[in-house]
């Protein structure tokens, strides 16, 4: 039997005839059923979307014309009070500050060139001026460096505008040097390692009440010193300490001198005998360049084969520049005995 004729034959009860149901017809029926189910699903999905859009549409607020007019008026008022000029000024200042804060990074060969020229200028200064105090030398070095900066700035400005044709600097390098020497000079000095000590100005204050004349002789507190103590006011002698004053205090300079005489008298053979006494008569303590804090009534007993002065009368200006806490007048009292 052929494939197109293969099917299922059904006999009707009345015997009126046969009805043949083939697989082809069954396949068509199944497809039609699937299409119907798909259409039904699409219809349901469309209906749900329509319901959702309708619900969203119902939530939209509709403003009245009077409300819209009031909102527009409030916007106009807000815009009219907006600080437009102030905002422009702030933006302009921000631009200026940002441009000023941009530091120029010089190439290494330009930094080396600056170092060589500054050292050459300082070298020529030192060769010309060998005399003078320490503070005068610092002031001259500062002036020399500042003069070099001004001269170099004028030179690179001429190069940047084309005023010097035979310069070894390019226009870009000249512009960078102008910026570095003019506004970034402090940063450049730090980068090249140039350091000049700050000049310290020491002022002597006269706190003596009005109407009281200066006495030519200064009187030490305590009992008078005997002639063999040979006291010298405002004097600090050097020497090897045979008794440390940090733990050796005396009530007066005379007692300190007597302690030195007693030490020399009772010293054993081969021991250093005290021949220098140094006393601190100031109630505020006495200055010394060491790390210790020297207090009132300290009595130092020292020995030196050839006594040598540390300081006499006033501390020199170069010393006070390097020791800002040092007073003007030497506060110690000393004496050389047995000489």
TrEMBL record:
Pfam families cross-referenced by the UniProt entry: PAN_4
Keywords: Membrane, Transmembrane, Transmembrane helix
Transmembrane helix recorded as keyword: yes
Domain Apple positions: 235-302
Domain of life: Eukaryota
Segments traversing the membrane: 26-46
Protein name per UniProt: Uncharacterized protein LOC101510596
Gene source species: Cicer arietinum (Chickpea)
Gene it is expressed from: LOC101510596
């Amino acid at each position: 039997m052929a494939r197109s004729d293969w099917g299922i034959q059904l006999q009707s009860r009345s015997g009126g005839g046969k009805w043949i149901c083939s697989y082809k017809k069954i396949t068509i029926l199944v497809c039609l059923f699937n299409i119907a189910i798909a259409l039904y699903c699409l219809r349901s999905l469309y209906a749900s979307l329509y319901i959702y859009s309708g619900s969203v549409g119902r939530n939209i607020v509709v403003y009245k014309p009077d409300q819209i007019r009031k909102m527009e008026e409030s916007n106009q008022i807000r815009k009219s009070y907006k600080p437009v000029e102030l905002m422009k000024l702030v933006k302009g200042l921000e631009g200026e500050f940002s441009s000023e804060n941009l530091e120029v990074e010089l190439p290494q060969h330009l930094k080396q060139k600056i170092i060589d020229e500054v050292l050459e200028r300082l070298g020529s200064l030192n060769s010309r001026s060998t005399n003078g105090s320490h503070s005068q030398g610092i002031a001259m070095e500062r002036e020399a460096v500042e003069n070099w900066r001004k001269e170099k700035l004028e030179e690179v400005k001429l190069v940047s505008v084309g005023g010097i044709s035979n310069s070894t600097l390019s226009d870009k390098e000249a512009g960078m040097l102008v910026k570095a020497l003019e506004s970034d000079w402090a940063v450049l000095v730090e980068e090249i390692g140039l350091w000049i000590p700050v000049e310290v100005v020491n002022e002597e204050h006269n706190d003596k009440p009005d109407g009281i004349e200066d006495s030519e002789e200064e009187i030490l507190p305590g009992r008078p010193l005997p002639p063999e103590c040979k006291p010298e006011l405002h004097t600090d002698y050097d020497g090897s300490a045979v008794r440390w004053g940090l733990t050796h205090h005396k009530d007066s300079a005379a007692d300190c001198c007597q302690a030195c005489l007693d030490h020399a008298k009772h010293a054993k053979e081969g021991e250093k005998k005290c021949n220098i006494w140094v006393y601190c008569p100031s109630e505020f303590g006495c200055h010394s360049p060491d790390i210790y804090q020297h207090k009132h009534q300290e009595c130092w007993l020292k020995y030196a084969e050839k006594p040598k002065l540390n300081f006499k009368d006033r501390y020199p200006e170069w010393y006070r520049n390097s020791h800002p806490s040092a007073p003007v007048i030497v506060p110690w009292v000393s004496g050389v005995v047995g000489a």
